Amino acid sequence: MSEEEKEETTEEETPAAEESVAEEAVAAEAPAEEAAEPAPAAEADSLADLPWKERKRLLKSRESGAPGPEKTPEQREGERQKARAAKARARRKRRAEAKADARPAAGDGTPPAERTRTGKPKERQGLVTSDKGDKTITVQIDSARRHPVYEKIVRQRHKIHVHDERNEAGEGDVVRVIETRKLSKTKHWRLVEIVEKAR
Predict the structure, then answer these.
(1) What are phi and psi of 114, to 5 degrees?
(2) Which terminus of the chain has fewer CB atoms gathered within 10 Å of its CB, N or C?
(3) For the chain, which residues make up each domain, given as ranges?
(4) 117 pLDDT tier (thresholds 50, 70, 90)
(5) Of 66 and 189, which is predicted with more confidence?
(6) Distance CA 96, CA 98 (A)
(7) Euclidean distance between CA atoms 190 and 155, whole angstroms
(8) Is 125 exposed, middle or buried (0-12, 13-18, 19+ CB in 10 A)?
(9) pTM surpassing 0.85?
C-alpha cells in the first residue's frame, strides 16, 4: 500500500474509531446510571433496618434547610439571654400555679398559730459533763441496745447542750432532760429535774 492509501484508510478508520469509543463510553455510562438507581433502593433497605427514631434523625440530618442570616456573637448571646428569660418567666408562672393549687383554701385546716406538736417529746437521762456556760449544761447520754441482726450489744455516747434556766445543775449530776424548741444553734433540750446530785 502506498502512503496515500494508508492515510485515506487511517482517515476513514478514525471517525469509525471515534464512534466506537463514544459507544463504549455511553455503554459504560449506562451501567453506571443503572447502578446509581439501585443505590437509593439499597439505601432504603439499610434505612429500613434501623429503628424508626434513628431513621427519622438520619433523614432529617440529610435535609439541608435554608441558611439563616449571619449573626455576630453579641447577637447570638442576646437571643440566648432572651430565650432564657422567657423560660424563667414560664417556670415562675408554672411554680406559682402549682403553689396556689397546693395551698388550702381560706377556712380549711388549722391556722399555723393554733397548730400543736403531735407526738410525745423525747426524754433522756444523762450525766452532766460541763456547767461552764451560763444557763447551759453539757449532758452525756449513754445508751446500749442489742443489734437486731448480729445480736451484739451496741453502745453509743451522745453529748447534748441543755438549757438550765436557774443554773442549778453541777458537773457530775445525773439529770433528766426533755426535747424542746430550738433555743440556739446547738441547744434544743431543757432540764426537767436533777435525779442525783454529785458527791
Answers:
(1) -90, -10
(2) C
(3) 1-62, 123-196
(4) low
(5) 189
(6) 5
(7) 24
(8) middle
(9) no
Cell 427514631 found at:
53
Contact 190, 139 (CB under 8 A): no
How is residue 170 written as a grid cell? 453541777
Place of cell 447502578: 35
State the DSSP code for 145: E
Half-sphere exposure at residue 60, Cβ-oriented, CA atoms within 13 angstroms: 6
- CATH fold of 123-196: OB fold (Dihydrolipoamide Acetyltransferase, E2P) (2.40.50)
Q: For residue 106, what pLDDT is reported? A: 61
Q: What does the pLDDT look like over 38-81, one tens digit per residue?
A: 556 666 677 888 899 999 988 888 887 777 889 999 999 999 99
The DSSP line for 46-77 is HHHHS-HHHHHHHHHHH--PPP-----HHHHH
Degrees (nearest 5) of the Cα angle 145, 150, 156?
Answer: 30
Question: Which secondary-structure segment (H or E) carries 124?
Answer: strand 123-130
Nearest-10 crossing angle of helices 38-49, 3-36: 20
Q: Which residue has the cell 463504549?
A: 24
Alpha carbon distance 45, 33 (integer Å): 19
